Backbone:
């Protein structure tokens, strides 16, 4: 591709050589540079791409895109831009033929609810015959292909590459999670979203290498509404108008508030045969009854968000209703059928805020006992362990402390920290270091009416120990436990 064409929507100056030259590839990772490539120097938190210029020139790069003063010998084009991240996004869009122009693009931002909502939206759209790609925390889905995710929002080059693959696979729509980091680092620059969605806002992702304070975090979320055509926002969130400051899009609202354009009313929790769910009446821009087999008020918000989006695609209410009734998201209050007399669920809650929200939600179903199994990751904040232990002891009747990803720490040391927190609350606890044995304990000792939540792993299918990731999927562990109990003649209720 011609470098000048790749730069057609980027402001630049050519400090050396010619921009009007053919290049073979667009690269931002020095390890992937091949003969004839253009290398974009990204200034990262850990490494600076400008430091690798001598290396990529030796590998045969024909051009480098920089945002700093540099000096290079030889016939290498040096393209100077104000922001190499923005340049990468725009160049990537050009390199892949502007695929976003051939897709209806939906971007969802917010502290919580992004993952579940993206799957709900995709489920509804696919049910209506609209082939839809997905990019998110768990995976990217492109036609029949699934790609495990490294980041909630990938680098801009990968976003555009996925868009291109989606178009080639026959997709006409894409729904994606848009993180505050993704917005701050220009990963979704280079195109305009058709729909930008705001779910909610709570203090999170504040600290080194993330956001310096809550104001910056909020401002980064707001960038989405300066880069979309229609904004759909949660009117109930106290930060909504701050997030919308400087928006250039049309705005629609949803929520429980009577002032919202789309509202949820007559909310009821339901529990039957070991299954927890919620039902409500959608009113306003659409009017119909909704019943889901996933628990909690937060799923009222998630599904209401999905309805607010999908109504723009003229999808019949019955199609939306059926899709929401069937929806299940891996690792997000995911029910695992074991018995009709108690409930077993898997969830990704792995910090204090998410665990408290999860357990508070499950408490609303008034279980006989609320049993919470969880561990904490090694080489991470010890404070998180104390907090999660205390929260579980306060909200759960029984806490089963076990191992998560110990990484390079001793599992027992992590359990001891959690137990320190657990002892600050009133709940009972038991410590079982082996996660499979801990799950077996929960199932074998379940009582009628119990709600058992396996927290922390969610969609993850591995356990990291001493730098090695071993395969471990809780769904498989549950199957193994049930098979072993059956073989041993031990009945569960």
Residues:
């Amino acid at each position: 591709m011609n470098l000048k064409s790749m730069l057609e929507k980027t402001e630049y100056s050519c400090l050396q050589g010619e921009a009007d030259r053919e290049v073979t590839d667009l690269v931002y990772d020095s390890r992937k540079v091949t003969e004839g490539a253009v290398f974009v120097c990204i200034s990262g938190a850990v490494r600076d791409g400008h430091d690798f210029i001598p290396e990529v020139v030796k590998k045969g790069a024909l051009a480098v895109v920089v945002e700093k003063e540099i000096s290079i010998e030889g016939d290498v084009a040096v393209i100077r831009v104000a922001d190499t991240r923005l340049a990468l996004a725009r160049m990537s869009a050009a390199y892949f033929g502007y695929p976003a122009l051939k897709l209806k693009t939906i971007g969802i931002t917010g502290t919580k609810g992004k993952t579940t909502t993206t799957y709900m939206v995709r489920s509804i759209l696919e049910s209506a015959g609209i082939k839809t790609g997905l990019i998110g925390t768990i995976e990217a889905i492109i036609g029949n292909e699934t790609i495990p995710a490294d980041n909630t929002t990938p680098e801009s080059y990968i976003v555009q590459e996925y868009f291109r693959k989606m178009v080639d696979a026959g997709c006409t729509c894409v729904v994606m999670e848009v993180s505050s980091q993704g917005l701050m680092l220009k990963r979704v620059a280079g195109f305009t979203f058709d729909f930008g969605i705001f779910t909610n806002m709570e203090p999170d992702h504040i600290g080194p290498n993330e956001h310096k304070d809550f104001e910056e975090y909020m401002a980064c979320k707001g960038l989405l509404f300066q880069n979309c055509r229609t904004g759909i926002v949660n009117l109930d969130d106290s930060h909504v108008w701050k997030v919308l400051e400087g928006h250039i899009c049309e705005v629609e609202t949803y929520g429980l508030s009577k002032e919202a354009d789309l509202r949820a009313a007559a909310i009821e929790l339901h529990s039957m045969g070991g299954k927890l769910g919620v039902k409500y009446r959608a009113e306003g821009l659409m009017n119909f009854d909704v019943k889901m087999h996933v628990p909690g008020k937060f799923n009222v918000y998630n599904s209401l968000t999905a309805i607010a989006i999908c109504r723009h695609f003229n999808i019949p209410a019955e199609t939306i209703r059926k899709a929401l009734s069937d929806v299940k998201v891996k690792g997000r209050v995911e029910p695992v059928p074991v018995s009709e007399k108690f409930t077993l669920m898997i969830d990704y809650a792995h910090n204090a805020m998410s665990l408290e929200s999860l357990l508070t939600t499950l408490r609303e179903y008034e279980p006989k006992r609320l049993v919470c199994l969880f561990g904490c990751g090694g080489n991470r904040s010890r404070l998180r362990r104390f907090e999660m232990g205390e929260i579980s002891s306060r909200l759960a009747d029984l806490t089963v402390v076990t191992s998560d990803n110990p990484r390079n720490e001793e599992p027992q040391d992590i359990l001891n920290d959690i137990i320190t927190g657990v002892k600050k609350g009133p709940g009972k606890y038991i410590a079982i270091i082996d996660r499979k044995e801990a799950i077996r304990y929960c199932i074998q000792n379940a009582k009628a009416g119990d709600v058992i939540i396996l927290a922390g792993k969610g969609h993850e299918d591995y356990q990291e120990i001493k730098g090695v990731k071993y395969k471990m999927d809780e769904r498989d562990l549950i199957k193994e436990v049930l098979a072993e109990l059956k073989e041993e003649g031990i009945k569960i209720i």
The CA atoms of residues 140 and 430 lie 38 Å apart. The mean pLDDT is 95.
